[in-house]
Amino acid sequence: MHLDHPGLFPPRHTHSAAPVRPDGTRRALRIGLGGPVGSGKTATVAALCRALREELSVAVVTNDIYTREDADFLLRHAVLPPERITAVETGACPHTAIRDDISANLEAVEDLEEAVGPLDLVLVESGGDNLTATFSRGLVDAQVFVIDVAGGDDIPRKGGPGVTTADLLVVNKTDLAPYVGSDLGRMARDAEAQRGELPVVFTSLTSEDGVRPVTDWVRRRLAGWAAAGER
Amino acid sequence: MDTTEGAATTRGTAAGAASACCAVGAAGATGVTALAGGTTGAAAATGGATAGTASTAAPVAPAAPPASAVPPAPAAGAARAALLVLADGRFPAGGHAHSGGAEAAVRAGRITDAETLLGYCRGRLHTTGLTSAALAAAAAAGIDPLALDEAADARTPSPALRVTARRLGRQLLRAARAAWPDPELDALAAARPRGAHQPVVLGLTCRVAGLAPLDAAYAAAHETVGGPAGATVRLLSLDPFDATAVLARLAPELDTVARSAAGAARRAVHEGPGTLPAASGPLPDIAAERHAVRSVRLFAS
Description:
Strand order of the largest sheet of chain A: 3-2-4-1-5-6-7
Number of domains of chain B: 1
CATH architecture of chain A: 3-Layer(aba) Sandwich
Oligomer: heterodimer
Low-confidence stretches of chain A: none
Mean pLDDT of chain B: 81
Strand content of chain A: 15-25%
Largest sheet of chain A: 7 strands, parallel
CATH class of chain A: Alpha Beta
Radius of gyration of chain A: 17 Å
Helix content of chain A: 25-40%
Number of strands of chain B: 0
Number of domains of chain A: 1
Low-confidence stretches of chain B: 1-68
Number of helices of chain B: 12
């Protein structure tokens, strides 16, 4: 079993990411999901919502690049009530909105907490981007990077900040591996070489409960967040 | 046409450093027209006219607040480096997601190259730019930011642009409070939790950062053209050198606008915010409303 990043929730220095909200309540755990276009970020978010919505208070912020398609997908599939889904516009620069200038996303998260809170978990989905995209620690507490086998089994070897530093690497669409000639064993070995002890999971969202490895990781993060609040 | 187009009432994106925009060109004619339009607007504004809803703006001489009610502004030149921090396009205040009306203008075929970008930016500088710069300078001069927020509403007839201005103001206030913690910023955040108009926040930020009203005017005027220029590079794949050349070409006019805005702010200290410029143009306001309901767009405004 791989270990998570040490020092679960280090101190924050920004107005927005303090663990306690202005009214004294503890804010929701914020998890970012990034990755290349088409790797299955939105599908993963949808599957997470379905798996967790009965037991947790969940909300989602999407970062669409030039449409509201991701938000609309989640609405259409009714993974959450509409008031729990917010879209942020990114001006053609999805990585800017999650890393360099997080102000719009912070407001979206805070507005959700205010409107439908208290929340346990906020998922912030990045617009599809490249392998260098990472979330600011001022915006999220942990981040998931989603790639897929059809994008090429050399992506873990190529590395980049998303692949190497994300708190969880998800390799999605494993059901397609035989059809696109991707070697899952090679991907796992390369990922481990890049990431050391940071966790990697393989998913096939088309199978029953295919998101389970991610759900389990999120649950552990939530437990850590709750424990940190009790200290 | 270019006149009104360039005159977008949209408050600035905080993207000072956006590189972009047009170089030369057909701008001869469009530029002059735009300039004329801007001047007219400014003249009307000094006469006390305010665009749009007159929530503030008594058209005649508003009651002058006692001079003692306005705290003294910092001495000009006391600080300067903070201005570079604030006007840097990387300052994280949300401007990157806004085009300052450029996307609507590109879609409508009114910006097609560096030349037309120059015309657009020039019109915007002398209308929205002047109005925003004067509001920012007035806030930096110590005029009550809530009164200025009402004055900004009165100068922003488009509801979509009011929403944009407040959203950007809220994002700027977040960044400003982290960069220059100050009770005046905290008070504004408490009084306007959904955001005050961006130029007002910008001016107040300059004030607490030790900058002068003229500095605030520069920052506001600069971003009203820097934002559209940067956005146009993305929208049209315009040569970024051409876009930067456009901004350089506008620099002398920006000097003039900033000084004029600072002068208007000085008057407003004694005569009230109703005397601040209210230059704008109807076409960008209409375009902004249409842009706001588009389902496919690259920029939020």
